[in-house]
Every structure is written in C-alpha cells, then in structure tokens.
Design a protein that fits this description.
- It is built from 21 helices and six strands.
- The protein has 601 residues and is mostly helical.
- A hairpin with a 2-residue loop joins strand 1 and strand 2.
- The termini are far apart.
Amino acid sequence: MTTNDPRAATDADGRADGRVTAAPPPAAAPPPAAAPPPDAAPPPTAAPPPDAAPDAGPPPTTAPRRRGWPFRLAATALLAWLAVAMVTTAVQQTPTIDEPVYVGAAASYLDRHSLRLNPEHPPLGKLVIGVGPWLSGMHLADGVPGNQQQVGQHLIYDSGHDPYRVMLAARLPMIVLTLLFGLVVLAFGRDVAGPGGGLLALALYAFSPDVVAHGSLATLDVPAAGFLLTAAWLMWRARTRPRLHLPLAGLALGAALATRMSTLPAVPVLLALAGLSVWPATATPDGARRAWRRLALAVVAALGVAVVATAVVWASYLAVDPRLRWTAPADLPAVHGVRALAVRVLPFPQPYLDGLRVQFGFEDATFGGFLLGRLYQGSLWYYLPVALLIKTPLGMLALWAAGVAALLAVRRLRPAAPYLLLTPGVLLAVALDGSRDFGVRYVIFVPIFLAVVAGGVAAVRWRAAHVTAGVAALAVAVSSVRAFPYYLPYSNEAFGGPSKTYLRLHDSNVDWGQDLGRLADRLRERYAGERVWLVYKGSGIPEAYGIHASNPRRVPPAQVHGLLVVSDTAIDKADRRLRGLIAGSRRLDHVGYSITIFRRP
C-alpha cells in the first residue's frame, strides 16, 4: 500500500492496513577487514545492482518534479476550464433574484458601515462580494432610500455604471473563491486517495453544473459550503499536525458561520471531528499517556476551534461597524423552545442572533413548490433528493455511490469517512425538513463534498474500477460541456437535458431571472418592432436592457396580441388567467432554457 505522507509510512503499513510486520533478525557482524597501507589508493566502490534498495539518503530532487508534472498539468487544465466556464456564464447572465440584495447590502456595509440591510445572512460573504464593485469605484450615493432589493437595483441600474460591469465586478470575487475551493478539493482528494483520487475529485468539482452555475454568481451558497469543506480538510490533516491545522480549521469554520447561518448544524459535527483528530496525534509509542488525558486534550482542541470560529464571526461584524450599532427590525418573529434557547446561548453578536430569528421565521412560513409537474403548497421531504437526481450528471451519481462504497469498504480509506460523510449528511437531514423547495443550491455542499468522496474510487485496487471511473468522469465532462454556458437550468439526459428542466423543477433550478439580457438580444435580432407582453420573474429591470413591454395580466385577454413572453417559473406556477393566455398562444422560441416566447394571434 502507498501513502502520500512519508511521515505516515509506519501507520500506513501497520495500523491503517491492520498488518504488523515483524522486524528481521539482526545480521551477523562481518569480520574486520585489514587496514590498507597509508599510501594505498581507496578501493573502487561497486555499483549496486538494479534491484538493490537505495540508501537512506534523500532522493534526487529532480525525480519527484518529473513525476509530478502530469499531475500539476492536469490540475491546472481542470481549474482553467472551471474558470472559463464560470467567467463566461458570469459575463452573459443578468442579475438573479438574490444578487441585487447581496450587492446592495455589501455596498451598504463598505460605504455606510451599516448592518441594517439583509440581517438574515452574516456579512462575510457579502463583504467578499462587495470588494469587486468597491475597488472598481462603484459606490452607493448618499441618501438612497428603499429596502435591500431596491438599494441593490439602484447600484446596478441607476448609479451611472453599466449593469453588466457591476455584476461582473461583484461575481469575480466569488469566482476566485470557487477556484480556491477547487484547490481544497484537489488536496483533500489527494490526501485521502492519492494523486489519482485528487484529480478525479477535482474533475467532478470542475464539471459539476451546480458548482459552475452558483460559483459564478454573487451569492452565498458555494462560499459557505467551500468553507465547511476546508474546515473538514484541515481537521483531517490535524491528525498528524494538530497545532498547525486546528486553528486554521477554526478560521474556516468561522468563515462558514459568518457567511450563512444554515451552516450552524455542522458545528457539533466539526467540533467532534476536531477532538477525533487530536486522539491519534496524542498517542505515544509506549502507551504511557492515559486515555483520560487524551480525552481531555480532545475536548480542549474542540473548545479551541469553537473559540477561533466565534472570533471570526465577531470580526466579520466588527469589520462592517466597529461600534456594532444595531436596531432590531420591528417585525422580528417570536421564537420558542429550542430556537429560543439557541438565540439566548449562542455567543454571537446581537445582529447575528436577530438574523437567526428572521431565518426561523422563514422556516415557519409556507411557500409554493413545484416538482415533477406538480404545483403544491408547503414543502416535500423528498424534494431535494429528487431535484439532485434530476440536476446531477448520471456519471457523477454513479461515482458518488461508488465513492461512498469505497470509503466504507477499503480499509485505508475508512478513517476519512467521518470527515467526508458526517457534515453533508447532517446538513442534508436538516435541509430535508426545510420550508423552501426552491433549488438544489440549498444543498450545494453535496456535490462539493461528494466530489472528494468519489475520488476514493482511485484507491480501489481493481483495474476495472479505474477504467469504469474514467469512463464515468468522461461522461460527466461531456454532459457538462454540452450545457455550456447554460448551467443554471441543467438537468441530466435521463430527464431531457436543460430544455426540459422547467417541466419538472422551477425557481433557482432553472429560471432565476438570469436571462433578461439574452431575451433583449433575441427580441432585437428576431422580433424587432413587435408588440411584447412580458411576465418576468426576476430582479432585473427590463427597460435597462431595451425591453419595452406591457403586463398582460393587467388588461383583458382580448387585448393581448403579439409576443407573449413568460418566464418558465411563471409558467409552472401560472394562475388560471395566465394559463388561459398561454393556451391561446403558439410557442415560438426558448431563451436560455428559462424564458419562453409565444405568439398570440
């Protein structure tokens, strides 16, 4: 068996594989050789045979570099593809529904040092989003009124800057962060399953339609999941160097908590993993250290990680306003039971705790959902698993399953199972009980963590497994590239591809308002001068892109003639009036797989 860490050679051959190799008996000492005369030349040194074991000296530095260049080249190519896919997507898409909220809140943080906007999410992710516009000279004017959506729309459309340029500036920091998380995926996969496992993990990450779609947006889903993966990876590495990696893991965990509150259920899991990481690192060869002392050290390690993570959350709020000026919203929902206890005992700033109450209010609300052609009120526990089944490439689903099996069956991989499976498992279980059936972005941690899990297939010693994994990874790449650059509405071939996604899913799974600019181009190129009636679901302003349209739901149906343009989510959730308008129309065109153009006679 091989291992990537030379310091772990003893563990890898003994403890990890469950084998103990007896030491060979000492060889008999050779008779002393006669000393050569002082003027004799030294005898020539015989060259070792080709199969002789090398001496204990350091190997030549050039050999590892020569062996490593294919790995570095492949990793660079995968990250380059991911960068191209995300930047292309970011350049072509107009604002999605949530992005103006985050862009406006970020500008408010940096320009006004105010925490008033968007309290339901902590500020760190939005501060990262705001760096791009702020450095580009895009600032909020004094006295801009309105709610968080209106403030964001003002910065994008009314500040004198090109809307595409504003959005690209806000999205680029998230793209860079997504690429950095790709390096974490690569390193984690390599640590667990070797170079092949790292490359397989990175390939699944780079070609994941969900990672490309949401990593190219100025939103918070991918950053929160990426920080959690980074924390888990650092805790895995802390098994050998806890003093270095556990504080860094605390920073990553704190960054996740300071980005999205939905990461809170992962805290007990990751703190337990911190203690688990210290346990092998504190073992001694003679067994002198008692179990209770090791347990105490594990508890101290977990508490230390918690302290560092808490400090990061506080720092993110203090970075916005060092005086932490805060007025609680007047409509904060009441909380009871365990929720009330959490709000009282969590050691976070008051704006964080009030934002948590806002999130609890969302969970108590009732929203509409759409799944497999069925419109319903409330939420379905199986919504997210079915949505993942639809929106994940078929080869990726197979590799996820194979990776989980390998992680549990291969002895050398089993120690990594808690680090890779517990966090996404707990978060998924919590998400299944959520109230918002809006998209797989709520479980974006699944493709990110399971990319590393799938890399474990590379550690299986069956050649057929490697060939099959390669074929599956190639199928993933082909499916993903075929969707370029329409990643948000992606669905796999078993469900008809991106053009059919709206028949089974809605909202951020397919139509999040991202194609308003493409619609403007299509109307200008093919339907110039025609009367347009628009039912648009999104945060963009149609007039900013040259779309001048009327609302067909505000006039009698008999007056609606010409082009009827409807967002696919509006089609999925259409009321009787809109269904009647569509029924009397002929389908003409499909823009970005998210907006349908009809013609009404």
